[in-house]
Specification:
By secondary structure, this protein is an alpha/beta fold. It has 9 helices and 9 strands. The strands form 2 sheets. Strands 5-6-7-3-8-9 form a 6-stranded mixed sheet, sandwiched between helices. A 3-stranded antiparallel sheet has the order 2-1-4, with helices on one face.
Length: 243
């Protein structure tokens, strides 16, 4: 694995206003980690621990922060849990995939169309699907479109926020395999967010364990699964085995 660091987060603190009291509340506390080129870094924790807030902060969607977020990458993108809500329902798949390319003014319409067809092939979609609307696709096909949208403009760092949790187990496996293949063939790096340790084990190289807005444990996936150090990680592992 290339040791180039594509993302460095140091002492990140995130604050938000409480909807009821209107007080400033700290959501994330002293978060520090890095993502290396070609690495799939997992972020796991129960719902409400701050995983999605962290992803939004990294992409600049949260303004009340302290600490630093440094990129050594281009055009980071996000893949969401629910592709149906993130894809324009009024547009066909071909239009949706082409849209991120329209800012690249040097590309002709023909070149954009060629890139769309090439990306469709890379994510495992038949060309006939380009003429369909998102509502006409299966959940797995919609997630393939979302992955294509994230990659088509040349991103090499992807934040994947629960990208397979809305899919059945068979389709989950297919999407995870696709993401691994793309990581290798396109030299991508992922921050892969999930509440499901079984999914983390299948795809990730390293994992961060988050609880109450803090990283409580980190390490290689094998080490975390075989020798967890914190009681919280042990509880997560036990819950995943029961599931």
């Amino acid at each position: 694995m290339n040791e180039k660091v594509v993302l460095e987060v140091e002492n990140l603190n995130v604050f938000m206003k409480d909807e009821h009291s209107k007080k400033r509340v700290q959501i994330l506390k002293n978060i520090s980690f890095s993502v290396k080129s070609g690495e799939i870094l997992g972020l796991v924790g129960e719902s409400g621990t701050g995983k999605t807030t962290l992803s939004k902060a990294i992409l600049g969607f949260v303004k009340d922060t302290t600490g630093s977020i440094l990129y050594n990458t281009k055009n980071p993108q996000m893949i969401f849990q629910d592709p149906f809500s993130s894809l324009n329902p009024a547009k066909r798949v071909g239009w949706i995939l082409e849209e991120p390319l329209k800012n690249q003014r040097l590309l002709s319409k023909e070149a954009r169309k060629e890139k769309v067809c090439d990306m469709a092939q890379k994510v495992g979609l038949e060309e006939t699907i380009l003429n369909r609307y998102p509502r006409q696709l299966s959940g797995g096909q919609r997630q393939r479109v979302s992955i294509g949208c994230a990659l088509i403009a040349g991103a090499d760092f992807i934040i994947a926020d629960e990208p397979v949790s809305a899919l059945d187990v068979t389709v989950q496996k297919q999407i995870l395999e696709l993401m691994e293949d793309l990581c290798d063939t396109l030299s991508l790096s992922y921050l892969f967010i999930s509440h499901d340790l079984n999914v983390i084990y299948q795809i990730c190289d390293r994992v961060l364990v988050m609880k109450d807005g803090q990283i409580v444990e980190e390490g290689n996936v094998e080490d975390i699964f075989t020798s967890p150090r914190t009681e919280y990680t042990k509880q997560l592992l036990e819950a995943s085995l029961e599931y």
